[in-house]
Amino acid sequence: MSIKIGKISYWHVHAWDYTNQAQEHDDTEIAAVWDEDPVRGKKAADQLQVPFYENLDDMLAQKDLVGVIVDAPTNMHLEVMLAAAKAGKHIFTEKVIAPTLAEVNEIVSEVKKQGVKLTVSLPRLNDGYTLAIQEVLQQGLLGKVTYVRVRLSHNGAVADWLPEHFYNLEQCAGGALIDLGCHPMYLTRLFLGEEIAGVSANFGYVTGKEVEDNAVATLHTATGAIGVVEAGFVNSHSPFTIEVHGTDGTLLYGTPEEKLLLRTNRAGEDSQGWKEVAVHENRESAFHQWVAHIQKDTTAEENVRIAVELTRLMEAANLSHKEGRVVRLEELKS
Fold it and tell me: Which of 106, 233, 237, 284 qualifies as a cystine partner to 213, CB 3.0-4.6 A?
């Protein structure tokens, strides 16, 4: 039997991507739409030939709806996800779960209380290069990881193709870092492989928007390993780039080709020069994983843990920029 899904907002730029995933999946379908912008929501519902609900509670009261996809403004996530969880609906959401750790913990607590399945779209966790890098790290070929740098940037603010509401500080809770920078942030944390003690951040406002369009955040660890997260809306030919450096080797990806290169002291006679490492096949998407959790009554524990940590790091980065100092993660209210 098809899993009927309610769509909560078409605010996010990826909202139609997730709609298409749901429509293309053999076991799911979009069956209802609510949007904080009724004009946009009605247009989407008409296009999908499904009912539009002006009141979110009315949509959530539909007994045949099993889950919801949340693409509402970031500052509305707490409100709509709590409502969805209390209505017993499983939740698939765009990152970040919410702007602050306190809000995230409230959402996750309610999700656990109601026994619904939460999965967050963190797509680059499932990409083949990420899986291949993790395998190399597990083999110990870099020794102790000392430095990770991940960069993701585009020209949306200078070429003017991002929607105007993506520059709304209240709705987005930030700019380039909390949007694009989410991906480098969770990857950098993943590849460092240890707890982050503090975060420092610097934001630039090249186009004079309300939110930053150029950003860097530095992750500090107790052992001296450092992570650097870079994101921007003002760069035309900036490749997605990963660097992982260790005491015995280095991994490079996307500089600029989409190849994974390794040089290590731990490969015996083959330790001289750079070697290309095969990139794995992509793992199934976060949406497919969410559907499987619903069907099998399992929980996306790792996904949610990484997503909670992502908000924690983003909140610390925003506070660091605001106050001009290193923010220790233990300072944040949970």
Answer: 233
* pLDDT tens, residue by residue, 205-252: 999 999 999 999 999 999 999 999 999 999 999 999 999 999 999 999
**Can you read off the two tokens belonging to residue 171?**
């709705």
CA-based nearest residue to 90, from 66, 113, 108: 66
pLDDT of amino acid 167:
96
User: DSSP 3-state assignment of 155?
Assistant: coil
pLDDT tens track for 49-80: 999 999 999 999 999 999 999 999 999 999 99
- The closest of 99, 172, 174, 121 to 15, measured between CA atoms, is 121
Residues 6+ positions from 50 with CB-CB distance below 8 Å: 30, 31, 32, 33
Residue 211 in tokens? 């939110």
Q: How far are the Cα atoms of 8, 95, 108, 111, 303 from residue 116, in angstroms, in the given order?
A: 16, 18, 10, 5, 15
| Cis omega (within 30 of 0) for bond into 96 | yes
In a 13 Å sphere around the CA of 147, the CA atoms on its Cβ side amount to: 8
Query: Mean pLDDT of all residues in the chain?
Result: 96
Q: List, as one string, the DSSP characters of 241-256.
A: EEEEEESSEEEEE-SS
At 334 the pLDDT is 83
Cα separation, 282 vs 9, whole angstroms: 28
Q: What pTM was estimated for this model as a whole?
A: 0.96
- 138 Cβ contact partners less than 8 Å away, ≥ 6 residues apart: none
- Crossing angle of helices 182-192 and 128-138, rounded to 10°: 20
